[in-house]
Design brief:
By secondary structure, this protein is of the alpha+beta class. 15% of the residues lie in helices and 43% in strands. The chain is elongated and about 90 Å long.
């Protein structure tokens, strides 16, 4: 028995192929025109440097250079629930075992705080982490940061 093919099979296949090509073309257009962003519009970068232990207090100062860069074509609002949540950190070992965190800042009013980051611009700030030498010893650690709602984890070495 010979199988019969519908006379319009070739025509239907051609129409389906054209429909798929049209959909791919629309997707490519929106990606390349910038109407669809494939990456996070705000990049968060941190560089660290360590100072010598500070005199009698003995804290180990680790300086952080924080940088948020707006990679989009439009400005964006950065908003946090309170001023105390604009910058937070904690330190763990490489096994994610807790070592130290930011000291309690006391009472913090629960009022939204916002700032504006213009298109293709960066916002930079420097923070110093006072690490306790009773908790932190020379070695490898993992620093967990949150800055204006953006999170980053960075492996650091304490000397």
């Amino acid at each position: 028995m010979a199988s019969s093919t519908p006379p319009d099979l070739g025509k239907r296949m051609m129409n389906q192929a054209l429909a798929v090509l049209a959909m791919v073309g629309v997707i490519v257009y929106f990606v390349y025109s910038g109407n669809v962003e494939l990456d996070e519009p705000v990049a968060f970068e941190v560089t660290t440097s360590q100072g010598a232990a500070a005199g009698t207090s003995g804290i180990i100062p680790v300086t952080l250079a924080l940088r948020l860069t707006n990679l989009s074509k439009e400005g964006t609002a950065l908003t946090v629930p309170s001023q105390c949540e604009a910058f937070n950190w904690f330190l763990t070992g490489l096994d994610n075992e807790f070592v130290q965190s930011q000291a309690d800042q006391g009472e913090c009013p629960k009022q939204n705080v916002s700032t504006w980051l213009d298109a293709n611009k960066a916002m930079e700030e420097t923070q110093v982490l006072p690490l306790d030498p009773k908790r932190v010893h020379p070695g490898e650690y993992r620093l967990h940061l949150r800055y204006w709602g953006h999170e980053l984890t960075k492996d650091i070495t304490i000397k």
